[in-house]
Amino acid sequence: MTAIAEPTEALVEHDHSDHNHPTDATYWKVGGILALLTGLEVSTYWWPKAWHKGTAVLLIIMMVIKFATVAMYFMHLKFDSKVLRRVFVAGLLLAVGVYLAALGSFTFFHDSGVPAFSNPPRSKPAPPPTTEVPALIPTAHRG
Amino acid sequence: MSDTVLAAVTTAPQDMSHGGHPPTNTGISNEKLGMWVFLGSECLMFGGLISTYLLYKNRPGAIQMRDALTTARVGSKVRISDLFDIKFTSVSSFILLASSLTMVFAVTSASRKDLSKTRLWLGTTATLGALFVGGQVYEFTTFVKEGLGFTSNVSTSAFYAMTGFHGVHVTVGILILLSTMALTFRPKPPTGEQVEIVGLYWHFVDVVWIVIFTVIYLIK
User: Fold this and answer.
1) Chain center to CA of B69
2) B21 has which bridge partners?
């Protein structure tokens, strides 16, 4: 009996969640916050070079906030069933994990140009060839 | 007590009040759940494209310019990121962000069965999306004129593949928006949930751009 009663409980939860969507005023506020964050992000492009390390961290934080805000409010993840949130977050976390591992294994963090990640050269560069390269153009035919 | 529960369960499958569909065990329509599963899988696809660009962005290779008379950069190591126009791309980003807001209003209007406003907001969203795609075409044209084509080097290939796939997603989104707008003229217009599912796709395209704009364009 308990097993077949579950669908009706789920339906009740669904009906309830449909009425929790934000108002238009909330959407305007969220849109304003997103615009402000985007403006701040863009402004970092002209910040002094000495701040680049901190700027990168700040940009990633702002990106995560913007991503989460759009997903939670505009895509209604905050108000809809938790199943949807789990489905999306599972895909997202899988992607982040897989590609961080891939970038790590492909030595992205060594070649990124960020001194914090750069290792010293693994070996000395190969010396230039000492032997003379033979002329590619044949000499004129001396018949 | 048990009779009441049984009656509720047996009558549930005939309940067609959920957007014309029978209710499901999860309480979520199959269409909506399917869209979220699709979006979850899209994270993996865009993750792959973004990672590939990050991996190759510092490998410029030799780039042939159009002709030797224009500049002295023939064979120089120009990166595609050297040609980014941040001011222009910022405006494009604002436009796409604004389109997310208008899409939300299209969804709320559809939920209230306000067809005229639904059409208005869907049309506005599609227009903003078209502006964004137009900006991307302009950006690509500028890069190609500078000598950075799809096959110039691995970095440009990765860049065009990533932003091109995103542009194709926006274009498909515009077509879906216009189709939805056309459907509102039929005697049985799309339900609020159907417009919401279209909105989910559109917002996803926006969040992908949030990541691309920050990681590719802004972080040096």
Assistant:
1) 40
2) B18
Taking the CA of residue A61 and the nearest CA in chain B, the distance in Å comes to: 10
Instruction: State the Cα–Cα distance between residues B119 and B100, nearest whole angstrom.
Output: 15
The 10s digit of each residue's pLDDT in A12-38 is 334 344 456 788 899 999 999 999 999
Question: CB of A14 within 8 Å of any CB in chain B?
Answer: yes
Does residue B154 belong to the interface with chain A, where contact is any CB pair within 8 Å? Answer: no
Cα separation, B215 vs A63, whole angstroms: 9
Measure the CA–CA gap between B129 and B171, rounded to whole angstroms. 8
Secondary structure (DSSP) of A17-37: HHTTPPPHHHHHHHHHHHHHH
Give which of A18, A43, A70 to mutate to test B binding, by max B Cβ within 10 Å.
A70
| B186 at interface of A, judged by CB pairs closer than 8 A | no
At B21, phi and psi to the nearest 5? -115, 150
Query: What is the per-residue pLDDT across B45-54, written as a single tens digit (0 to 9) for each?
Result: 999 999 999 8
Average pLDDT, chain B: 84
Q: Which two tokens stand for residue B182?
A: 């056309």
Virtual CA dihedral for A26, A29, A31, A37, nearest 10 degrees?
A: -140
Identify the three-state secondary structure at position B21.
Answer: strand
Residues B58, A113: contact at Cβ < 8 Å? yes
Instruction: Copy the structure tokens of residue B167.
Output: 């542009």
Going by the DSSP 8-state scheme, the letter that residue B18 receives in this structure is B
Residues forming beta bridges with residue B18, ordered by sequence position: B21
A133 touches chain B (CB under 8 A): no
CA distance B17 to B22: 8
Compute CA distances B25 → A80, B28, B41, B124, whole Å. Answer: 15, 8, 23, 36
Q: Does the beta carbon of A31 lie under 8 angstroms from any beta carbon of chain B? A: yes
ipTM: 0.81
> Which chain B residue has its CA at the smallest distance from A110's CA?
B55
Single out the residue of B216, B214, B175 nearest to residue B198, CA to CA. B175
DSSP-derived secondary structure letter, B73: -
pLDDT at position B48:
93
